[in-house]
Amino acid sequence: MSLIELHYDVPGDDFSRAGEASGNVKAQLKKLGFDPALIRNVVIALYEGEINMVIHANGGTIDVSIDPDCIRMVLADKGPGIADVELAMQAGYSTAPDNVRALGFGAGMGLPNIKKYTDDMRIDTKLGEGTTMYLRVDVK
Amino acid sequence: MTVREIQEILSAEVICGEDFLDREVFSACGSDMMSDVLAYVKEQAVLLSGLVNPQVVRTAEMMDMQCIVFVRGKHPDESIIGLARDRDIVLLSTQLPMFAACGMLYEKGLRGGTIQ
Asked: Which terminus of chain B has a smaller tally of CB atoms within 10 A, N or C?
C-alpha cells in the first residue's frame, strides 16, 4: 500500500478538460512538499499520457501511487492499441489527425517526452483492445 | 527580464495577472506545438504562442511557466482566462507576429532554454 493513491477517470470526448487529472496530481504533490523539478517530470509525463488518451483512445483511467521514494503511474485505456511501439517511440512520428495538430498536439513528441521525463516506462498494448502504460519517477 | 518589461517591449495588453507583472522570467519559448514546449525544461519561462485553447494554459501550468503571450492579436475566451487566473499565470496579447515578438525579446537579452 502506498502513502497516497489517486484515481482519475479521463473523459474522452472533451479535449478542453484534458489535463485536469495531471493538474490535480501536481497540486497534490506540491502540497506534499516534493521538489518542483521532480513534480515537473511527473506531471509532464502524465499530461502527455492524458492527452494521448483523449486524442487516440476516447479517454481512460489514471492511477497514481505516491511514496516517499517514487511516484508510480498507471494509464489504462480501451483504445485501438499501438501497432508499432518502437516506431511510436521515435521523436516526430505521429498518427494523430490534422484536427489534433490544430490543437497543438500530434507532433510525435508524446511518447518520447514521457520516456525522457520518467525513470521507467513500460507499455502493454494490444490492437483493438487498448493500451496500459506503467511509469515510474524516482525521488532522488 | 520582468513580465512588465515583456509587456512594454511587445506593446502587449494585459489580459489577466496584473498583480504578477514584477515576476522575473529567465527564458522564453515560442511555439504552437505544445509537445515541443513540453520537450524543453526551462526555469521561470515565458511562452509565446499563436495557439489559443485551454491546453496552452495547461502546458504552462505543467511547466511552471509564469506568463503566456498570445501573438498576432489572438485573444483567449473567458474559460481560458479563468483557467490562467486560477493558476496565477499572466496572460498577455500582442499584435506582433510570432517571429517579430520573439526577435524583439531576444534583442533585449531574453534567451531560450537549454535543450536536454
From this structure: C
